[in-house]
Every structure is written in C-alpha cells, then in structure tokens.
Amino acid sequence: MASKHVEKIKALYKENKKSSLIWYLVLRTFVIITMVLSFVRGDYSSVFLCLLTLILFLIPFWINNKLNIDIPNVLEIIIFLFIFSAEILGEINNFYAHIPNWDTILHTLNGFLCAAIGFSMIDILNNSEKFHINLSPIFVSLVAFCFSMTIGVLWEFFEFGADQLVKTDMQKDRIIQTISSVTLEPNGKNDPVIIDNIDKTIIESNKNGEMVDTIIEGGYLDIGIIDTMKDLFVNFIGAVVFSILGFFYIHNRDKYKFTENFIPRKKKRLHN
C-alpha cells in the first residue's frame, strides 16, 4: 500500500522536481521511524503527531495535482522542512526547549511563507483572464502582509484554545522577575502596582482536601502572553520581509527573479 502511494507521488513529479521528491522521501522515512519507536514506547500522542505530519506532507502534492498549482521546488522543500521541524523536532524531540529561539525561527519563517502564499493568490488573480482586476503592487503586498498576519493570529487562537481545553502548554510559559498589575492596587484604582526583583513564587492549591505548595524558583510564572506576543512580532517581521520583496518583484520581475522560488504559480494549460 505504501509503495503504491509513493509511486503515485513519483509519477506527479518530473525531472525538475527530483530534489523535492528526495527530501520528501528522506523526511518521510525519518517520520515513520519516529512513529514506530514512539509506538513501541507507548507514546501514542507522538504517534498521532507522526501521522499528522505524514498527512501534512501530502498537502503540496494535493495542491499540485488537484488545484493545478505549481509550487516552486525551493518553497516545497522549505514546507517539508518546516513541518518536520515543527512537529517531529519541535514537539516530539522537544527542540522548543533544548534549542534557543527554535520557536522564534519557525514563527518568523511562517510569517514569510504565509505572505508568499497570500501574495501568490492575488498575483494569480491579477494575471488571470477570468478576473478583470489589476491591483497595484502596493495593494498586492498589503494583502500578502494581512494574509500572513491573519494566519499568525489564527494559530495563536489555536494555541490558546489547546491550552485552555486540553491543558497543553503550546503558548510556552516562562519565568519573569517583574510584573505590573492594576489588579494588585488595594483601592481599585487604575494605577499599576509594580513588583520587581521577584526571587520566588509560592502557589498554594487544594488537592483532595490537602493544601499543596508549588514553588517557582527564580521569579513569577508568565502564562503565555509573552510567548504569544513574541510569536506575532516575529511573524510580522517575516511578513514584512516578503511583502517588500513581492513589491519590488512586481515592479521588476527579471531583476528580482529569485523571488519566484517562493511564489506558487497556476500551471499553464497545454492547448492542442
């Protein structure tokens, strides 16, 4: 069954897609090995993530075959690496905790890629004979930027929902030493009370009728807001970078031809 699936994918790809296909097969092999090892360990949540990764890997092929849109080789490889880095390396192998700024790199790249996809959708419409529109370069770039930021916000909604409903920690709590809050103002005024140089936080909770102390060494626990705002900020940076590239690309497609490596294109139909 798996061999038939691989053969179908190979049939979709021509000579100029060989490198993308190689990356897909190599990463797919690593995912399957990880899934088998996770199953043997009884780590079924990781097995689910591996299955999800294998499904996500098929999206470029589905877009290529069903929507008749050609994803550039470079962009396709980046998508495969992004999915693998986020799910297998980030979640299962905990690179988010072990590798500094791993999450920041992925969110920045996500902003760049989503801006490229948003740009592509508008550029395809601009060049389509079915739509009588001709949007200015600045407007196309603005739409690409807004599309990217919307995807970034929706992802943060997803992280927040998972943390609230399933009690995960996708927003990644962190230790801080200073807080500023009007909630701590004793007279109910809108004046923030600042507490700095926090060395330790003690949380008292009731478990089965017994009081339990949880001690947080080194400061106070911020529950996700810093991580969320940081993710949105670096998404913003990635979106701005590509939007600027896209703007200059529309003005001079030959001079900025390298930008085409990140822009999906509608396939040209062959007429007999």
Summed over residues and divided by their number, the pLDDT gives a mean of: 87
Label the structural class.
Answer: mainly alpha
Count of DSSP-assigned helices? 9
Q: Distance between termini?
A: 36 Å
Uncertain residue ranges: none
Number of strands: 8
Shape summary: flat
Largest sheet descriptor: 2 strands, antiparallel
How much of the sequence lies in strands comes to: 5-15%
Helix and strand string, N-terminal first?
HHHHEHHHHEEEEEEHE
What percent of the residues sit in helical stretches (DSSP H or I)?
A: 55-70%
Number of spatially distinct domains:
2
Strand arrangement within the widest β-sheet reads 1-8
Structure overview:
- Helix 3 (44-57) runs antiparallel to helix 5.
- The mean pLDDT is 87.
- It is built from 9 helices and 8 strands.
- Helix content is 60%, strand content 12%.
- The strands form 4 sheets. It has a two-stranded antiparallel sheet. It has a two-stranded antiparallel sheet with strand order 2-7. A two-stranded antiparallel sheet has the order 3-4.
- Strand 5 (200-207) and strand 6 form a beta hairpin.
- With 272 residues, the protein is mainly alpha-helical.
- The two termini are 36 Å apart.
